[in-house]
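In keeping with the milestone schedule agreed at the kick-off meeting, the structural modelling team has produced records for the first pair of proteins. Each record is given below as a sequence line and a structure-token line. The laboratory manager (R.T.) confirmed that both were archived under the project's standard naming scheme.
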Amino acid sequence: MSVVTVHQAKTNLSRLIKKACEGEEVIIARGSKPVARLVPIGEIKGKRQPGSWKGKLRVGPDFFEPLPEPELSRWE
């Protein structure tokens, strides 16, 4: 596990990203207080395809009806 300051993280960001991708935990600290963890996001599963949910979701006619007064009062 590496603990680096914000300044060190800005200076060595590429190296820290490489370490995180290799599985090492990288902690970024402001002074001596840890504030962030640098982790890889993993593999991207695939390209998004517009319209892939078409026909799978339904919105009933009541969706377009006005909200009841108790519900509306909670939004104020």
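The second protein of the pair:
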Amino acid sequence: MDVFMLWHVYELEDDFGIHDEEKMIGIFQTEADAEKAIDLLKDQEGFRDHPLQCFEIHKIKIGQIGWTEGFSTVRF
């Protein structure tokens, strides 16, 4: 079964440098439901300060590992 994760992602510059600011908004049964959530949020405080392209919908399968390899941390 597929579900749709809705994220809000943008670059933020602060005392630590530039990094991605990511918020998982929710998990939805359909892409249309995720798009409805964007429509409800796009004019809210914070969200309205970033373009609509900051909203990302990712289709994923329930029960499937999404990260199958190791990772490394890079610090600047």
